Amino acid sequence: MKLPRTWKLLGLPAAAGMALSLIVAGPAGAATPEATQPSSDKSSQQQGSDFLNSPSVNLKSAPQITQSDLQNEGYHVALTSDPSNAGVTISGKFIDSAGTAFKSPTTLTTDAKGNVDGYMKASGKLAPGTATLKMTASNGATVPDETFTVTEDETTPPPEQNYDDAAITAAPTTFTEGSWGDGITVNGTDFKPNSEVRVEVNYAATGHGDELASVTAKTDADGNFTQTVSPKGTPEVPKDDWSYSVSALQTAESGDVIASDVITLTINEKQEPAADPSISIADTTFTEGSWGEGIKVSGKNFEPNQSATVQVVHDADSSGTVIEEVDVKADADGTFTETVKPSAAPKVVKGKKYFVGASWATKSGAQAGGSVSTAAVPMAEAAPAAQSTDWIELTISPKATVNPTISVSPKKISTTDFENEDKGVTITGKHYAPGEAVTLEASSQSGKVDGITLHSTSDKNGTVQFTLYAIGSAVADTYNVTLTGDDHAKTLKASFQVYTGAANGGGDDDNAGGSNAGNSNGGNNDGADPGSDSGNAANDDPVTVSTSADDLPRTGGLDFGALYAGAGLVVLGAAGVLVTRRKKNSVIE
User: Fold this and answer.
1) pLDDT tens string 335-358
2) Distance between CA 104 and CA 76 in Å, rounded?
3) What residue spans carry the region label Disordered (predicted)?
């Protein structure tokens, strides 16, 4: 800022009854000169001495200040007085050459000696020319006006515009004959700001051609734009020296044409798409609780020797939790076959399903497969894209609700028939799951015959059967039997009675066991009294029962068990060598 010169009071006589004070005023940066202060009595209507101004007869030129300096830095004001004007507030307003008043937002306060030195800013932009600063003191003391010149701010002419860097990019630039797809997205930079740009797509050769599209775009404040162009017709593979191209044109302030470089588009021949890799599953239905022999997955249309991963998902959709995955590799024909058996058995869960699919990695941009996910790219190498086949949903059938049953035949049997290997007692369980393991437990109510546990497996109809008979002397008693399946917590119970005598010796089947069980004279003394000791219990020698074909009981094509009993009672089932020791009230295996 150019600082104005200062001025001072010289040799002015004092007014009658009034003291002279020095006032130095000027634009910012002006110095404050010295002055004498003749003493004088104050007017009765003022609290301090008047502030007097001196004529500017000693200034070679009027002080000047620019419009912006007056607003930003302010006009320099320097006043001197006496202590009677201590603490007085000086305010002011500017009047420009057009007569417009601008109140100063700043005020000045005198010090203890009545002096003040500071800057007053204009609240607005004054018109160029002579301006006046009118000041007032808060105590009513007179402050003379200041007159100065306001000069217009210097303006910098705008730089000459240059659009040599105007350029465009386009995507995509490669198409397949027959379709422009979603069009061509053109991005422009460094064009004329806030102005229209003509974007063109042409099919041309030297000296002639056709305009296929023309769209008007508008640049932003930085001269950039984005515009999508959809050419008319369908692209064909160019012949001879013809080509498709995209460009952008604009008119500068000077009238010159701003033209981008021309981008050539590539049109490829349409190729029949190769079949996408896919999988098939031999059986998509499984029963809850078992994968059977597993999920047999076959793949085709893969790249020769391509690696892939077969995945089993259990979730609301195929993008959920993977519960099993197996790496596979296609053969030279692009096919593979793999059996996948998840470690967790299938189950029916509300809101979840089972899906099977195959995924593999291809180079970025491959068209095969399903959705593509991105991954981190090491250095400049293209990241592989994760591809997947369509997912196949599996059906899990709830396990059939069965209510197994137990039956005993006959419910009553004589000791004679119980000792007959062609007769005995048959325990049958029905309605188990096919192949379900079933356990039989048999024991006597009297406790004179040790209990035994037998195991078998139900047939394809869910039926299991055990046949029990005695080898040696049978013990008349009531025998309790239970059946328990591995897949069913419920235990089935039944019982049968063995009574003393021949088939009809104890009466009919309904009461024979009860009437003769305790009759010591009913026949065979070994089993006459359920509460008596075994007749041969004193013999501690082991008895071995052979499992040769001649010694095994009838099976009727079904599994049999074996029951150890006191008094030499042995019930022989499926193959096995059974050994008992004749001890009182007990038999040890």
Assistant:
1) 999 999 999 889 888 889 999 999
2) 13
3) 29-67, 507-551
